[in-house]
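Handout, page 2. Input:
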Amino acid sequence: MLSLSLINIMSELKEAIKSQHKLLLELQQILETELHLISSRDAESLINMLKTKEALLDSVQQQDTLIASLYTKSSQEQKDDEEVVKLFNQAKEIVSQCKYRTQINQTAVEQGQLRLEHLRNLLLESRAKESMTYDKSGRTRGGSSGGGISA
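Output:
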């Protein structure tokens, strides 16, 4: 028969995992918002949201520590409890979805950086063409014309 303290640990463990679910679902929503902000290139909102995300990740980590402590104190029978196993599996699934969304966001950032680099190169090429001059023999030469025009 389970003692009262083990029953309390079991109850606390289930509540801790449920609290972790809420935090992870909130993280999932933030990751969705993050993708939208990356796509819309709203840098200021993105930076503010990243601060919120960082605080949330700290909370997730603290909750993980609490869950690990409670899990260690639990008996094997409690660890094998159907509801506990189900709650852990649900948490693992949400974490998996968060990892997937993070990968999508990372890809979006990388693609955005590539587009910006491409645009930068096009602007530099355009500038180089605008400053192109010709020498006496009719060959193109980059840079400014220098001393002026003589007739």
